[in-house]
Amino acid sequence: MESTDTILQVQGLSVSFGALRAVDSVDMAVRRSGVTSLIGPNGAGKSTLFNLISGAIRPSAGKVLFNGVNVTGWSPHKLLRAGMARSFQITNLFFDMSVRENLRLASQILEPAGKAWWPLSRSHRAAERVEEQLERFSLQGRADALAGELSHGEQRRLEIAVALASGPQLLMLDEPTQGMSHGDTQEAAQLIKTLSSEVGILLVEHDVNLVMDVSDHIVVLSQGKKLAEGRPADVRANPQVQAAYFGG
Ligand code: ADP
Ligand code: MG
């Protein structure tokens, strides 16, 4: 399935925790634009697969190809520099820093440290990008507030903005709407859809309705294995998926 449309390819990826094969020979691909979602029952291995792809844990077998390059075993930081950004199920914000400072810090991640020649125009551009992100994520009015003072919905928005600040090609989101109100979830879904025209998105999500609504392609995991994949309607209609996941 090698194609220029594909930003990420996972081949035979596996990892065990003791006797448990948490991720078992999974093959999948993520396109350069649009939303690819990973769903499955609790304990299916979604977060583990996400952590394998983003470099937080190392696979015991298999490969991760990003832009056709074998990035298996790369650190999260090296992957970020290559264009793969992730947000965390557990927040990665600095609560005692302002919203603007959080964004500024995130956008500086890619600037080479201590390089005197680093052009001023680049820094100006970074500052402009921070202001653009504030506006885009409806956080202009909260720019000087501490991240810890934001509402839950605002914090989740800031997390996505932080993940995007480095200008990635692939954005990985693990349960971005966890703990959100219905209204905030709807807003987040809209935002994810909008963003997916510019950046490939890999979404791990518990909320099936949200997944059906925003995804272009869905991969279903069950007990560490890929059970099915396809367009939302096909996945929903798949009897195996219904049995394993929707309990029908
Ligand atoms: P999901 O995100 O789909 O709910 P996880 O990937 O978190 O599932 O977990 C898959 C399985 O691996 C579960 O049985 C879980 O208990 C187990 N698991 C996850 N992380 C670890 C770990 N660090 N050590 C041991 N077992 C783990
Ligand atoms: Mg999980």
From TrEMBL:
Q: Which UniProt keywords apply?
A: ATP-binding, Cell membrane, Membrane, Nucleotide-binding, Transport
Q: Is Ion transport a UniProt keyword of this protein?
A: no
For whether the record's keyword set contains Repeat, the answer is no
- Domain of life of the source: Bacteria
Q: Which residues form the ABC transporter domain?
A: 8-248
What are its GO cellular component terms?
plasma membrane
Recorded protein name is Amino acid/amide ABC transporter ATP-binding protein 1 (HAAT family)
Q: Which organism is it from?
A: Paracandidimonas soli
User: One GO molecular-function annotation for this sequence?
Assistant: ATP binding
Question: InterPro entries in the record, alphabetically?
Answer: AAA+_ATPase, ABC_AA/LPS_Transport, ABC_transporter-like_ATP-bd, ABC_transporter-like_CS, BCA_ABC_TP_C, P-loop_NTPase
